[in-house]
Design brief:
This protein is mostly helical. The protein contains 4 helices and no strands.
Length: 148
C-alpha cells in the first residue's frame, strides 16, 4: 500500500508542477508567440485567434488539473472507489474532449494542431473507458456494502 501512496504523491506533485508551468505559460505566451511568428508567415488575425483559443484551452486544462488534484487527494486519503472520483474522471474526460475540439478547429489555421486534437481525442476516449470501469467498481462496492 505504501508503494501506491508513493506513486500517488509523485503524480500529485507532477500534476501541480504542470499547473505551475501552465500559469507561467499564460504570462509568457505573448512573448513566445512574437518570437515564433517571426519564423512563420502568419497573419495578425491568425495569431490573435490562436492566442484566444490557447487561453480558452488554459481554462479548460486548469479545470482538468483541479479535478485530477481532487482525485489524487482522495486516493491518498484512502477513498478510491467513490462517486466523487468518478465525477472527477468524467470532468477530466470532458475537458480533454473540449480541448480536442478547440485544437481541431485551430488546426484549420495551424495544421500541426490537428495532431494535438487527435491525441486529446484518444485521451478522452481512454479516460472515458477508465471512468466507466471506475463507475462499475463503485456500483459493485456500494452493493457489497449493503450486503450483510
Amino acid at each position: 500500500m505504501e508503494k501506491q501512496k508513493f506513486w500517488a504523491k509523485v503524480t500529485l506533485w507532477v500534476e501541480r508542477g504542470v499547473g505551475a508551468l501552465l500559469v507561467a505559460l499564460v504570462f509568457l505566451l505573448p512573448a513566445i508567440l512574437r518570437c515564433y511568428i517571426g519564423f512563420l508567415f502568419m497573419l495578425e488575425w491568425e495569431q490573435q485567434l490562436l492566442t484566444g483559443l490557447f487561453y480558452c484551452c488554459v481554462v479548460i486544462i486548469g479545470w482538468a488539473l483541479w479535478n485530477l488534484d481532487c482525485l489524487l487527494r482522495g486516493i491518498l486519503a484512502g477513498e478510491v472507489f467513490v462517486r466523487k472520483n468518478v465525477r472527477c474522471l468524467r470532468w477530466v474526460q470532458w475537458s480533454c474532449g473540449l480541448v480536442s475540439l478547440i485544437t481541431g478547429i485551430a488546426g484549420i489555421i495551424y495544421i500541426p494542431l490537428i495532431a494535438l486534437a487527435v491525441i486529446m481525442a484518444f485521451l478522452c476516449l481512454t479516460i472515458s473507458v477508465v471512468s466507466h470501469v471506475m463507475d462499475a467498481a463503485v456500483t459493485i462496492r456500494e452493493e457489497n456494502d449493503l450486503t450483510i
